[in-house]
Design brief:
Elements: E1 13-17, E2 24-28, E3 33-35, E4 39-43, E5 50-52, E6 63-65
Antiparallel strand pairs: 1-2, 1-6, 3-4, 4-5
This protein binds zinc ion.
């Protein structure tokens, strides 16, 4: 196929609060580590805690979709 006008690929971002140190940061899919058994997680930039973000597309008190 041929693109006449290129569309903008939406970057999905989420805001998450680290429960361990209280750091609030924004991540996108390129920051997410994933494993079939462990699910998806991001690493807190402040304390290196692994934060589970497997259910980031669901309603979640700790993770906000931006
Ligand atoms: Zn942290």
């Amino acid at each position: 196929m041929r693109i006449i006008k290129e569309g903008k690929k939406p970057i999905k971002e989420w805001q998450v609060t680290c429960k361990k140190c209280g750091c609030v940061f924004v991540f996108n899919n390129s920051d997410v580590h994933s494993d079939q058994r462990e699910g998806d997680w991001v690493v807190c930039p402040t304390c290196n805690e692994c934060i589970d973000v497997t259910h980031r597309n669901w309603l979640n008190e700790n993770i906000k979709h931006l």
